[in-house]
Amino acid sequence: MPALPTLAVVGATGAVGTVLCQLLSARRNVWGEIKLFASARSDGRQVRCRGEELTVQTLTPEAFDGVDVAMFDVPDEVAAHWAPIAVTRGAVVVDNSGAFRMERDVPLVVPEINPGQTRHRPRGIIANGNCTTLAMIVAVAPLHREYGLRELVLASYQAASGAGQAGVDALHTQLGKIAGDRTLGSRPGDVRQAVGDDLGPFPAPLALNVVPWAGLLADDGWSAEEMKVRNESRKILGLPDLKVSATCVRVPVVTGHSVAVHAVFAAEVDAESAREVLRNAPGVIMVDDPATGEFPMPIDAVGTDPSWVGRLRRALDDPRALDFFVTGDNLRKGAALNTAQIAELVAKELTGR
Amino acid sequence: MPALPTLAVVGATGAVGTVLCQLLSARRNVWGEIKLFASARSDGRQVRCRGEELTVQTLTPEAFDGVDVAMFDVPDEVAAHWAPIAVTRGAVVVDNSGAFRMERDVPLVVPEINPGQTRHRPRGIIANGNCTTLAMIVAVAPLHREYGLRELVLASYQAASGAGQAGVDALHTQLGKIAGDRTLGSRPGDVRQAVGDDLGPFPAPLALNVVPWAGLLADDGWSAEEMKVRNESRKILGLPDLKVSATCVRVPVVTGHSVAVHAVFAAEVDAESAREVLRNAPGVIMVDDPATGEFPMPIDAVGTDPSWVGRLRRALDDPRALDFFVTGDNLRKGAALNTAQIAELVAKELTGR
């Protein structure tokens, strides 16, 4: 065991990997050597991380030798293949893909909520939640502890970068094509025509539009994204019977997922007490003064760590329900930050400090 | 009584008034003379309507003499002043403002739902609903008739034109300012800086953002828009105790309001039967095949009459609840079309044909 553990970042050149490197430069340093890995097309690229110029390498099994903690941000099938190899070579894997999240012997950890579960990792893998779940759950969990959560009805406003750098590129390209034509958006199909084939990873144009679909098709008309939000919320909160209905919608925002939350509790709630709970909750910042134009929005929350919560009010027709709006940076708390936080918990455990 | 009734359009040069004139040109003609009114700054402007060039006039009390039906699309305070004057001069007023909607002696009519109420107008005024209510209620009402509605949880995705032509202009101006800079949307405040003071009628930039606020501040942190959706839904459906929680959010779309709907009913529901109900419902078009990329979106629904409904599925954890997504043209069914439909019902009553 070295004095400071060795870290590997797998998927270092993607949208989330790039933010991970930024975070490693900005957060308190708990790491010894840092190794960066990506697919073959990034091999040899130089990336600045923690003040050093690091060379991105292609993955091999041997590359994990000597690695204590490996953060994975790669597609599900890549994680499914490589994470067990990293474990075999001695690393603890913190995985941001969907490959292991719902496995019973893989903990799904949000450090503000269930940090102790990092230690229960029989397969050597700890999972990070989906970006939409993470934005919202940091605010929901402290309210659950106070009032006892029974049901969530959620509608999301998800940013292009949730689909990776290709999503961001597509949105900017589309905006470039529609800008300047002030007639667009007023006739059926005119935006489709202007955008043409530049859809990127989305099933329809995102510019001047909202797309009520994210992820693959699951059963009975549900999207995989909506199922993730339901199943991960239940697992993180330890509430296997929690009622959850989520509608996941992509919007023309670069970074920052927002969620309109309707949360029903076992006990009566009071808006002012709920605000006080959230003001004291880790990872949450309250921005809730509509009279002065203060509410959570992606253009403010992007690039920041906490979940921004506002528009909090008690349901008018149900004294046990709260309505509120949350915005979080889907690349930070929704991905890289939560991964880094989990990895730091493991580093602390490994080094005893 | 003339063979064909005389129609006045008050607010003929605004975003909704412009669509009203287009609709009057396209729909079956039930009108004799058409008179167009607007504020003094549009006085004398020529507007093409029903194949004629009409001159826009400034309002005077005498201008309503001989008018049988007056459609109003003006700010609340203008409607509050002028609608009673029009009634005194002999016109039936169909008002699209919020000034009279919740008055007990003013019917709030959606012709697909409660057409008979146009005849119960002791004050001579019939109100048109708010654009967000209308987009969604056309789909909710037939499901209510089938299953008995108990509760609605709604999150909206509202277009810029809901705030009038000034909203559309502001969005296009903002898009012009942000286009071409592919770095925008990734750092806190960078979009605010690029947009500058060109906010138009919105409290924050709409480009690359979502703004969880529409309308004035009501009590307890609710927006006036959210209160309208609740109160108007109850009145239109005749359900004074209906539980409604709405979160109203503005998105960078030109025209086309969308709503994510979670509807809880008295009886168990079945997604396929619900789809059949909606396929047979007037004013609704089902677009619900996610496997082929078919779901309701503003870029397709804009410029069309029906409410587009899709993403319909039964809640996984509540057999009495349905989740679905609706998009409607907020200037058509959400405003001008519903106004025209009500006015046509009155024309039919007045002429007996």
UniProtKB/TrEMBL annotation, chains A, B:
NADP(+) binds at T13, G14, A15, V16, R41, S42, S161, G162, N330. Residues 6-121 form the Semialdehyde dehydrogenase NAD-binding domain. InterPro entries: Asp-semialdehyde_DH_CS (IPR000319), Asp_semialdehyde_DH (IPR012080), Asp_semialdehyde_DH_beta (IPR005986), NAD(P)-bd_dom_sf (IPR036291), Semialdehyde_DH_NAD-bd (IPR000534), Semialdhyde_DH_dimer_dom (IPR012280). The active site is at C131 (acyl-thioester intermediate), H257 (proton acceptor). Keywords: Amino-acid biosynthesis, Diaminopimelate biosynthesis, Lysine biosynthesis, Methionine biosynthesis, NADP, Oxidoreductase, Threonine biosynthesis. Phosphate binds at R101. One of its GO terms (molecular function) is protein dimerization activity. One of its GO terms (biological process) is isoleucine biosynthetic process. Homodimer. Belongs to the aspartate-semialdehyde dehydrogenase family. Catalyzes the NADPH-dependent formation of L-aspartate-semialdehyde (L-ASA) by the reductive dephosphorylation of L-aspartyl-4-phosphate. This is Aspartate-semialdehyde dehydrogenase. The gene is asd.
